[in-house]
Amino acid sequence: MFIQLPEEKRDLIKSLFQKKQPNNSALWCYFDGKMTGKTFVDDITFPTKAICRLDMSWTYISDDADLPWIEDVLGEVIKKDWLQVIWVPERKGTYPLKEFAKIIPRFEFIERKEVLEKPCDVEITPFTSELFDKLPEDYKNWHLQNYGTKEAFLEKAFGFYAVENGEVCCESEAAFTAHGFTEIGIYTFEPYRRRGFAFATCLKTLEELETMGLKAIWACDEENAESVRLAKRLGFVNPVEYEFLYFPTRN
User: Taking the chain (251 residues) in consecutive chunks of 10 residues, what is each chunk's mean pLDDT?
Assistant: First the structure.
């Protein structure tokens, strides 16, 4: 049995997520009201199990939820929505609805050591309206989908552009900031790849985050060799191995 929890009651389930999960800062953002989503529970008054599906697809399962209950909830949810379920290391090897799931091995890096490598010489600047307008249309539209407007992006987003001859080469953004953590992402545009811009831009972002008292999270698929290699160049060590369970919508 499960029921959707009214959003104004989400405080009832915070205690069900005592163990830190990979990509946890996004879940904290949901609990803090910074992100939207849906929560399904076993009891609307005194819940003991919960599954939170953020509107951006990431899905979190409470510490003590059992496999049969998880399967019941996910089986109904994927009739309407696709999911990326954060599957914690302790649950590895036992999967819900395995016939429908694509299992994606992942790394999450948080611990860092000192970086001795020097960045390349490139202009690095915070986000500006003028440079936002120079982003490729598909990437610009992706930001607009997430933030709604350019003005909202410039107000809420934090990060840097690498700029060469007035053109944006790559972008590093810190997102899902909550409880002293933030998740960092990087994208280098096609003509400017393999020139060290991603390393330089991320290094600047990480330095600024440290001055703000924030710990960076770097998460990626294990098969994304370039992302793993860049994380290690940036000093990230000792990753946590976990999995995404990808469930397409079952119409």
Answer: 93 96 96 94 97 96 97 96 96 95 97 96 96 94 90 92 96 95 95 95 97 97 97 98 96 72
Which residues fall within 8 angstroms of residue 125, CB to CB, at 6 or more apart? Answer: 131, 160, 161, 163
Query: What is the value of pTM for the model shown?
Result: 0.93
Q: Is 15 exposed, middle or buried (0-12, 13-18, 19+ CB in 10 A)?
A: exposed
Q: Put the strands of the sheet holding 123-126 in their side by side order.
A: 3-5, 37-41, 50-54, 58-61, 83-87, 240-247, 102-109, 215-221, 181-188, 167-178, 158-164, 123-126
Query: CB within 8 A of 204, min separation 6: which ones?
Result: 119, 124, 160, 172
CA atoms within 13 A on the CB side of 98: 6
Compute CA distances 157 → 101, 121, 211, 213, whole Å: 32, 25, 17, 17
Q: Are 4 and 40 in contact (CB under 8 A)?
A: yes
- Residue 133 has phi, psi (to 5 degrees) of -65, -20
> C-alpha 213: how far from its chain's center?
19
Residues 101, 96: Cα–Cα separation, whole Å: 8
In the block, tokens 């953020």 appear at 54
Task: Give the residue from 131, 52, 118 showing the smallest Cα distance to 85.
Answer: 52
The 10 Å Cβ neighbour count of residue 24 is 21
Q: Rounded to the nearest 5 degrees, what angle is found at the Cα of 2, between the Cα atoms of 247 and 48?
A: 105
